[in-house]
TrEMBL record:
Pfam families: DUF6261. This is Uncharacterized protein. InterPro entries: DUF6261. It comes from the Bacteria.
Length: 238
């Protein structure tokens, strides 16, 4: 008997199983069955919406990652310059004071600002640090130029990720969340498609048998992966 999709499946797991089921259906000649055709006509747009919602989640996750990657060289710059402020060489101390006067106008607290505010401040700080009058001082501080270059690259990468995120969420106010769509997909697959295929596999195994077995295998694979994942103990934070 065909299992039902495990309700504890992750959104991504439901999405993958759903796409496999749709792909299997498209490789059959069962489109002539009006009942099954109606079910898949409803499932296909849900699958597209679910994938789109996952893309928005992925874009947001990538944005967070790029923000963390930007914060690293930003903090390094403050720590490096702070260290040089105590250098025994007066020339290097003076150079550090010159650079510090610029970055202290922004402060390391900008890492706690919103994405938009932090981006604006980092861009402004990078412009200030690019001034010709600061280049000699920066050159005297070993590693400073490299950190500034790394910060510039990280800032560019963040802005690229932010554009991707904004594009993905442009219509977010009118779209359902991934978890909401997942519920609809489970409802359709478990209460309609699976139930229908169970019955038709008995009534007309020659026509529906192969597809029913394929769907059964897809769902069984998913459910096994879910059970395996759930059986693993949660990592304990120390």
């Amino acid at each position: 008997m065909i299992q039902k999709l495990n309700s504890k499946s992750r959104v991504t797991e439901v999405d993958a199983a759903c796409m496999r089921i749709i792909g299997a259906y498209q490789n059959t000649s069962l489109s002539t069955d009006v009942h099954l055709a109606a079910m898949f006509s409803a499932l296909e747009p849900l699958s597209v919406s679910l994938s789109g919602s996952i893309n928005r989640i992925t874009a947001e996750s990538n944005l967070e990652e790029k923000d963390e990657e930007r914060d690293e060289p930003l903090r390094s710059l403050f720590y490096l310059v702070a260290g040089f402020l105590h250098h025994p060489d007066a020339t290097i101390r003076a150079a550090a004071e010159k650079v510090n006067a610029v970055i202290e106008r922004y402060g390391m607290g900008i890492t706690k600002e919103s994405y938009a505010v932090e981006s604006s401040l980092v861009s402004s700080m990078l412009k200030d640090l690019a001034q010709p009058k600061l280049q000699d001082a920066i050159a005297l501080l070993s590693g400073c130029a490299e950190i500034i270059a790394a910060l510039q690259l990280a800032q560019t990468a963040f802005e690229t990720a932010r554009i991707a995120y904004e594009e993905e969420k442009a219509d977010d106010s009118t779209q359902q969340s991934a978890s909401e769509i997942k519920v609809e997909v489970l409802e359709l697959v478990n209460k309609k498609i699976v139930v229908y295929l169970r019955a038709m596999e008995v009534v007309d195994v020659e026509t529906f048998g192969a597809f029913a077995r394929t769907v059964a295998e897809i769902i069984a694979d998913n459910n096994q992966a879910v059970r395996k994942r759930l059986s693993k103990p949660e990592p304990v934070e120390e």
